[in-house]
Design brief:
Layout (H helix, E strand, L loop, with lengths): L1 E5 L2 E3 L21 E3 L1 H15 L5 E8 L4 H10 L3 E6 L11 H15 L3 E5 L10 H9 L2 E11 L4 E8 L2 E8 L2 E5 L11 H9 L3 E3 L33 H12 L1
Length: 254
């Protein structure tokens, strides 16, 4: 049994985002980049299934320029067996690769690799689209576990999942092959050890191009302008006692 994990290179979640002066994009120069946090959970779950003997191999794949190799090295250090870069000529601002384009490319790649399970993070923290996994499952015609917070792979080629909804926990059973998009609650991603990081540096990476997958990365959308969110305003007030709070509410309503 084989699993493919799609990972994305994004600005590290601890970095404060700045918008370029011309408002065409955010600043990427000399900014720390890392694996999308939700994708770390996806990779961790696949590696845990491999360590439990449920999966034989884990393939990490990402789409981006040469610099995107760093997240694949991280994936290898965390336990992936193989890493594949779908190399593009799009600049560092990889947000320009739209969700549907990513899903179509991953579909072609998955048809080549023929995995039993495909893992993705439920969303990327740069564009927050929350749609690539759904698009991929629809293109493949596979079942889809959305925002999964717990899962168990059964011997009869079914996977039981739990996902949090506004009404509470929802439990589903899916037949393999299927697509799983992971929530942060699913697990705690491991830190890659220094020996594994050193080993990952020397491991080979497979490089393919969108042309190899019969795909073109022409954007369908134009970014008109990028603006930072407006500063937060302080509308709250502290009250020492409940009586004063109630009195303030009454005054506001009168």
């Amino acid at each position: 049994m084989k699993a493919v994990v799609a990972v994305k290179r994004v600005i590290d979640h601890n970095v404060k985002i700045h918008v370029k002066a011309d408002q065409t994009s955010v600043v990427y120069d000399n900014v720390k980049m890392s694996m999308n946090p939700f994708d770390e959970n996806a990779l961790e779950e696949a590696v845990q299934l491999k360590e439990a003997g449920k999966i034989k191999s884990v393939i990490a794949v990402t789409i981006g320029p040469d610099k995107a190799e760093d997240v694949l090295r991280t994936a290898l250090a965390m336990g992936a067996d193989k890493a594949v870069l779908i190399k593009t000529t799009i600049p560092t601002n990889i947000i320009n690769i739209e969700s549907l384009t990513v899903a179509k490319s991953l579909k072609k790649f998955i048809e080549i690799e023929s995995p039993d399970l495909v893992f993705l993070g439920k969303q990327a923290i740069d564009n927050e689209s929350f749609e690539t996994g759904q698009m991929l499952a629809a293109l493949l015609g596979w079942g889809h576990g959305l925002a999964v917070s717990a899962l168990e792979l059964k011997d009869d080629r079914t996977i039981e999942i739990a996902r949090e909804t506004e009404q509470g926990l929802e439990f589903l059973s899916l037949k393999l092959p299927c697509v799983i998009t992971t929530d942060l609650r699913l697990n705690e991603p491991r830190y890659a050890s220094l020996p594994n990081i050193m080993k990952a540096r020397s491991k080979p990476l497979d490089v393919i191009t969108p042309t190899d997958l019969m795909e073109e990365y022409e954007p369908r959308l134009d970014i008109i302008k990028v603006e930072p969110p407006p500063p937060r305003t302080t509308n709250g007030a502290a009250f020492i006692s409940l009586d004063k709070a109630v009195e303030k509410i009454k005054q506001a309503r009168s």
